[in-house]
Amino acid sequence: MKWLDKQVLAPVALDEAPVELPTFEHPKLEPEMPLTRLKIRNKIRGYCEDFEIDNDGYKRIMNLLEHEMDKGLGKETNAAATIKMFPTYVRSLPDGSEEGNFLALDLGGTNFRVLLITLHGGEVKMESKIYLIPQYIMQGSGNQLFDHLADCCAKFMKAHAISHLSLPLGFTFSFPCKQHGIASASLQTWTKGFKCAGVEGEDVVRMFHEAVKRRKDIDITCVAILNDTVGTLMSCAHDDHNCEIGLILGTGTNACYMEKLDNVELWDGDDKEPKQVIINTEWGAFGDNKCLDWFRTPYDKEVDEFSLNGGKQVYEKMISGMYMGEIARLVILKLTQEGLMFGGEVSEELETRQRFYTKYISEIESDDEDEFRNTKQVLEEMGIETFTIEDCRNVRYVCEQVSTRAAYLASAGIAVLLNKISKPEITVAVDGSLYKFHPKFHDRMVDKISTLVNPGIKFKLMVSHDGSGRGAAMVAAAVAGIHFKNDVIVSDS
Ligand SMILES: Nc1ncnc2c1ncn2[C@@H]1O[C@H](COP(=O)(O)OP(=O)(O)OP(=O)(O)O)[C@@H](O)[C@H]1O
């Protein structure tokens, strides 16, 4: 085993100035702790203190976010707004009586899925298959991407012996899009590692239909395009009628909510009842106008600099799974280079971009503090030859700082939406691996939202299972006219 059982202190270069005894609560300090370790912890805290934002700071972030959202909703101000607040053309929520067979596609992050969904008597049956999108396609041409999607659909339909059927399809496409109707959306900008040429500004439903036509062996009509936040909200609202917010905390982050039509100056659809529409906020772009620069750390700036979309998705880059591990890696690397961890020995893996996976943060924060079994495993995987229990404690501290800020930033966003909706009881549907697998994300969010939300609003965060598939089928059901019970579930412009 490479880690050291004994508390061997790493040789560190420290100045000899008198050290003030720390008063901080975490990491817990044993009274007999050697002074050198206190000094190291003090220094590590110094490097991490920019991740700590007090409640006044979070309230300031909320004010900024609300201001940006209002700009996004306003007719005159939308063009210059960073948060686009796209109306989705989904006007009301499912009631469980939707019926039929549907295809759904889910593209938006690490995987592409094709699903066959049956809605019947409030029950949902699903069969699905995940298909990889190779890196060369993620960053190739648009036609290549859509040909690949159509190819996966054809393979799936063949495998399920449904190639001869013409089923309605709901397409969950989780990138910032301006919708022109329920089945028409132009991509505004690629995010989350995608960069296919010739798609930005184009209608992605049209491009998908063209790819289907090019191959001639399948007949698919996309009747609805939606974002994964909308799918998440629809899927959860099927079971919980207080659900009015959809939140994604996965590769990226985004949220949608039900807004009154009166507040949506950009609305160009009909004004039938219910006078409301789901707004896809695309809040990941919050901060792209530099309004959050007052608390961004040098690590955030470096992550941005080395991303495919520099200067964009600033809020997303401080919250979501695609970036969180990388932020932690940069902090740990810096601390090691400063001689504060691992005896100053930097491994090749620690120097490699994207090598410290966000799932490591979940594993490390799940650890039993006496043993640090997961942390030791992660450090071994990171090629760290020699480390102490104190190093494990400090690595965990860094992970906690990075992930807590992410949870609190997402909480500030949710508090803004809860205050906007302002109903006595509101459920927030949440999906995404970061939220589902991080051991403390949910609890930290509940704590922080409780301190930030207006009094009199009760909220619940609820995991929404497979929203991208189920939600897409529910919207498709409404559009395809198979569901007749509701007057209007969606409306086309
Ligand atoms: N155990 C884990 N703990 C925390 N984060 C994780 C874990 N496993 C995966 N992730 C992060 O979650 C992201 C994947 O999210 P998800 O599985 O929700 O899929 P996605 O559809 O790609 O995301 P999105 O909905 O944002 O497009 C990865 O970027 C990864 O960093």
UniProtKB/TrEMBL annotation:
InterPro entries per the UniProt record, alphabetical: ATPase_NBD (IPR043129), Hexokinase (IPR001312), Hexokinase_C (IPR022673), Hexokinase_N (IPR022672)
Give the family, as the similarity comment puts it.
Answer: Belongs to the hexokinase family.
Q: What is this protein called?
A: Phosphotransferase
UniProt keyword annotation of Translocase present = no
Task: State if Kinase is listed as a keyword.
Answer: yes
Q: Name one GO biological process term.
A: glucose metabolic process
Enzyme's top EC category = transferase
Q: In which pathway does it act?
A: Carbohydrate metabolism; hexose metabolism; Carbohydrate degradation; glycolysis; D-glyceraldehyde 3-phosphate and glycerone phosphate from D-glucose: step 1/4
Which species expresses this protein natively?
Answer: Owenia fusiformis (Polychaete worm)
- For this protein, the Enzyme Commission number is 2.7.1.-
| Ranges annotated as spanning the membrane | none
The protein's job, in short, is: Catalyzes the phosphorylation of various hexoses to hexose 6-phosphate.
What are the GO MF terms of this UniProt record? ATP binding; D-glucose binding; fructokinase activity; glucokinase activity
| Keywords from the named record | ATP-binding, Glycolysis, Kinase, Nucleotide-binding, Transferase
Q: Name one GO cellular component term.
A: cytosol
UniProt catalytic activity: D-glucose + ATP = D-glucose 6-phosphate + ADP + H(+); D-mannose + ATP = D-mannose 6-phosphate + ADP + H(+); a D-hexose + ATP = a D-hexose 6-phosphate + ADP + H(+); D-fructose + ATP = D-fructose 6-phosphate + ADP + H(+)
